Amino acid sequence: MRIAVVGTGYVGLVSGACFAEFGTDVICVDKDEEKITRLKRGEIPIYEPGLEDLVNKQVEAGRLNFTGDLADAVKQADAVFIAVGTPSRRFTRDADLRYVYAAAKEIAAALEGYTVVVNKSTVPVGTAREVYEVIKKERPDADFDICSNPEFLREGAAINDFMRPDRVVIGVESERAEEVMRALYRPLYINETPMVVTAPETAEIIKYAANAFLATKISFINEVANLCEKAGGDVQVVARAMGLDGRIGSKFLHAGPGYGGSCFPKDTKALAQIGRKYNAPQRIVENVVEINADRQQQMAQKVMDACGGSVDGKKIGILGVSFKPNTDDVREAPSLVVIPILQEYGAEIIAHDPAAMKEAAEHLEDVRWAKDLYDVAIDADAVVILTEWNEYRQLDLDRLGEQMAQKRLVDLRNIYKVADMEDKDFHYVSVGRREVEPAANLKAVKEA
User: Fold this and answer.
1) Deepest in the core among 69, 213, 322, 375, taking most CB within 10 A?
2) First and final CA of the chain: distance in angstroms?
3) Cα angle vertex 117, ends 42, 20, to 5°?
């Protein structure tokens, strides 16, 4: 089989490379000529573990190609995947579908023979039918079907998620289209991957509902963390006990500075807007959106509280600016809220991230970027862990403390155990757990 993938962003490039790994002939299309040129040279525009090797392997095998000629790619394809961006509109918060509709129009003009047009982009309910109407209007004679095939790729683990998914969702209305989609995903049968075949509208809702539910779990445990801090509980123990309940599960019950990235913020806002459109308010999701926005501001306040209530004139070291580890994505990252607030209140910021400093520098001003992670500690009044990169899980705390002006460690990802920090002479602050005072302070209290 041959497929075309319109859009070489995160979803399009990962999907194209993985389908090629399945043995499918794939051609990825993008209007950005410079991007296509770079991809042909083997230069990957996004940071995703394993993606560069996979792309180069498939290019060398002749199964993966890149072009700026959409018409030529579509003419050769049995299925055409639309994988363009659907950002949130600034004021209405609903998904901006202009790129989806533009792609549909161009695809319509190039269709030859029976083709399945697949929405891979995350789109509101009803978009599949709208794309169908766009194509039908442009080409009443075209022989095609529409499919909604949402992606469930986690940044940092996208290749594994595509190759070993929990499920594949296929939203179609014709047996012919279903046969094409099942053939494309046939390599997953050996792993007995569940195939959920349903109507396009249901498939579209599944994507939003899944992401909104995971975001809800994050906001829920963050609210519980606030209670633990006030009442003297330990949120990690609470989360572990909850997760042992098979009805709940342990994933996404990690207290921290809130969710970010390209999916959860956009999809929760879009689902809330869809609910209002259909007069079926998604009140839980609306609250989740507000809780998460408040959460990131609360984390800035937590840093200030750890510094005695003020960061004016203080030097704050930041470890991690990407929204999660194993990605350079800073979209909606907590760092983009926390750092400017600290700066507004007079803090000097020096930051480190293994992959995202270049991206973050485009969004953050007056931040000094450290080549070595320990440089953030030099004369620092506090060091803040914002992203749980593996590099930060085994810090040499003695080395860190020796370089700091004040030994304050604010761990917003709960990487370290409270018990392990008891003898390190740090003022240690985490999320939803008790604070650790420096041993010298405790000694002074006892003597008094």
Assistant:
1) 322
2) 79
3) 30
CA atoms within 13 A on the CB side of 434: 10
- Give the closest residue to 120 by CA, choosing from 233, 2, 234, 7: 7
What global pTM score does this model have?
0.90
What amino acid positions are annotated as catalytic residues? 263
Interval 364-377 mean pLDDT? 96
170 phi, psi to nearest 5 deg: -125, 115
Across 21-59, b (16+ Cβ under 10 Å) vs e yields: bbebbbbbbbbeeebbeebeeeebebbbeebeebbeebb
How do residues 81-91 score in pLDDT, each as one tens digit?
999 988 777 66
How far apart are alpha carbons 441 and 393 in whole angstroms?
26
SS3 56: helix
For residue 128 the two structure tokens come to 């599949």
**294-447 and 2-198 share a CATH fold:** yes
Buried b (16+ CB within 10 A) or exposed e, 72-83: ebbeebbbbbbb
Q: Which two tokens stand for residue 231?
A: 């009442």
Is residue 333 within 8 Å of 414, Cβ to Cβ? no
Q: What is the pLDDT of residues 119-146, one digit of tens each?
A: 998 898 999 999 999 999 999 999 999 9
Q: Which CATH class is domain 294-447?
A: alpha beta
Contact between residue 377 and residue 352 where contact means Cβ atoms under 8 Å apart? no
Spatial separation of the C-alpha atoms in residues 33 and 30, rounded to whole Å: 7
Q: What is the pLDDT of residue 87?
A: 78
Chain centroid to Cα 409, Å, comes to 26
218 by DSSP, 3-state: which? helix
Q: Which of 367, 372, 322 is nearest to 349 (CA)?
A: 367
Give me the residue spans of the domains in the chain.
Answer: 2-198, 208-293, 294-447
For 6-19, the DSSP string reads E--SHHHHHHHHHH
CATH no., domain 2-198: 3.40.50.720
Please give the structure tokens belonging to residue 434: 């008790």
Strand partners, 317: 350, 383
Q: Is 13 exposed, middle or buried (0-12, 13-18, 19+ CB in 10 A)?
A: buried
CATH topology of domain 208-293: N-(1-d-carboxylethyl)-l-norvaline Dehydrogenase; domain 2 (1.10.1040)
Q: How far apart are CA 322 and CA 332, in angstroms?
A: 9
| CA 134/CA 291 separation, integer angstroms | 38
